[in-house]
C-alpha cells in the first residue's frame, strides 16, 4: 500500500512497481472548489507516453476534511515556507467548519428524534412556557444542568454566571436579579435550585484574591459577591490545603446565596406562603456525585440574620 501525502502537487516519477516501457508520472492535486464540509476531492492523474503522445488517466479520491490541516503543513514543509497568516486563517476556517458541521448534525438529530417525535409538546411551548424550576448554575462548560440533571425544553428557566452567585437585593442590577424577578413574579416557578460544583475557577479566584481584589478586573468585581462565604471558610478551614478550602467555600457559597435569596421581599413572601421552595445542589464531577438539600424556612426564621440557614432533606445521588 502506498501512502501519498495530500499536498497540492506531489509527483513520483518511475517507481519500480510502476514499471512499463514508457516513463510514468503520478501526480496528485487537491481541488478546493470541490470540497464539502466533510470531504475534499483529490485528483489522481497518471501520465504515460504512448507513441510520442501523452495519455492521461484521472481518478478521483475522497479525502476526509480532517486531513486538510496535515496536508497544508506538509505542503509548507515541502516548499520550505514559514506558515503565514493566510495559511493559518485557512486552517482555522476549516477547523471552524468542522465544529459547526458537528453541531449541525447534533441539531438535526434533535429535530428528528426529539422535536418531531414530540411535536405537540413543542407546539405548546411555542405559545407559552411554564417551568417548575429556576436554576442558577455556574457558567463552567463542565456543568451543564440540562445534561447532568436531564432537564428538557420547558422544564427549567436557567441563568448561569461565574461561580453561581446570587447578589444581594440591595446591590445594583444584574442579569441574575432580572432572571429572579421574571421567573418568580411572571413565570411563577415553584423551585429555585442553586448548583455549585467541584474545582470552580470562580471560587478559586475568590479564595486567592487579596482584599477587594483588582478593581479593574470584571472577575474580581463579580466574585467578591461571595466574600462572606470566603470569610466563613477562612474562619473554620484556614489550616487546610488551599484546594480543600476552595471545596469548603464552593458549598458555603451556595448556602450564602440561598440565604441572600430570602432578602428579596417577593421571594421571601412566596417561601413563607409555601408556594416557592429553595434548594441547593453540589455537583462533584471528579467522582460524579450530586448532593442536594432544601432550605428549612421555619428553622431558618429562628436564626439570627447573617448566621446562616437551616437545611433539610439532604441527599447524595
From TrEMBL:
Keyword Zinc among UniProt keywords: yes
Binding site for Zn(2+): 138, 140, 197, 200
SMART domains to which the protein is assigned, alphabetical: Pro_CA
Cofactor list: Zn(2+)
Any one GO molecular-function label of the UniProt entry: zinc ion binding
Cofactor binding summary note: Binds 1 zinc ion per subunit.
Enzymatic class: lyase
Domain of life according to the entry: Eukaryota
Catalysed reaction, written as an equation: hydrogencarbonate + H(+) = CO2 + H2O
One Gene Ontology term from the biological process aspect of the record: carbon utilization
Family, per entry: Belongs to the beta-class carbonic anhydrase family.
PANTHER family named among the record's database cross-references: BETA CARBONIC ANHYDRASE 5, CHLOROPLASTIC (PTHR11002:SF75), CARBONIC ANHYDRASE (PTHR11002)
Biological role: Reversible hydration of carbon dioxide.
Protein name in the entry: Carbonic anhydrase
Organism name: Brassica carinata (Ethiopian mustard)
Amino acid at each position: 500500500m502506498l501512502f501519498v501525502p495530500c499536498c497540492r502537487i506531489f509527483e513520483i516519477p518511475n517507481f519500480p512497481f510502476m514499471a512499463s516501457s514508457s516513463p510514468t508520472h503520478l501526480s496528485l492535486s487537491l481541488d478546493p472548489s470541490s470540497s464539502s464540509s466533510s470531504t475534499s476531492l483529490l485528483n489522481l492523474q497518471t501520465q504515460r507516453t504512448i507513441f510520442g503522445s501523452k495519455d492521461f488517466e484521472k481518478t478521483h479520491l475522497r479525502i476526509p476534511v480532517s486531513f486538510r490541516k496535515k496536508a497544508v503543513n506538509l505542503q509548507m514543509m515541502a516548499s520550505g515556507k514559514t506558515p503565514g497568516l493566510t495559511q493559518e486563517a485557512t486552517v482555522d476556517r476549516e477547523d471552524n467548519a468542522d465544529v459547526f458541521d458537528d453541531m449541525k448534525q447534533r441539531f438535526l438529530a434533535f429535530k428528528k428524534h426529539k422535536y418531531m417525535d414530540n411535536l405537540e409538546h413543542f407546539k405548546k411551548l411555542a405559545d407559552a412556557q411554564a417551568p417548575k424550576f429556576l436554576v442558577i448554575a455556574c457558567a463552567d462548560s463542565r456543568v451543564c444542568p440540562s445534561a447532568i440533571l436531564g432537564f428538557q425544553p420547558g422544564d427549567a428557566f436557567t441563568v448561569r454566571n461565574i461561580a453561581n452567585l446570587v447578589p444581594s437585593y440591595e446591590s445594583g442590577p444584574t442579569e441574575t436579579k432580572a432572571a429572579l424577578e421574571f421567573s418568580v413574579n411572571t413565570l411563577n416557578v415553584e423551585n429555585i435550585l442553586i448548583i455549585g460544583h467541584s474545582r470552580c475557577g470562580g471560587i478559586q479566584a475568590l479564595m486567592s484574591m487579596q482584599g477587594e481584589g483588582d478593581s479593574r478586573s470584571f472577575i474580581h468585581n463579580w466574585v467578591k459577591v461571595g466574600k462572606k462565604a470566603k470569610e466563613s471558610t477562612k474562619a473554620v478551614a484556614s489550616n487546610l490545603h488551599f484546594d480543600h478550602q476552595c471545596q469548603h467555600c464552593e458549598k458555603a457559597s451556595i448556602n450564602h446565596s440561598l440565604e441572600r435569596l430570602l432578602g428579596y421581599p417577593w421571594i421571601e413572601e412566596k417561601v413563607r406562603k409555601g408556594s416557592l421552595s429553595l434548594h441547593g445542589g453540589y455537583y462533584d464531577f471528579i467522582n460524579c456525585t450530586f448532593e442536594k438539600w432544601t432550605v428549612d424556612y421555619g428553622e431558618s426564621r429562628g436564626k439570627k440574620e447573617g448566621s446562616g440557614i437551616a437545611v433539610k432533606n439532604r441527599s447524595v445521588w
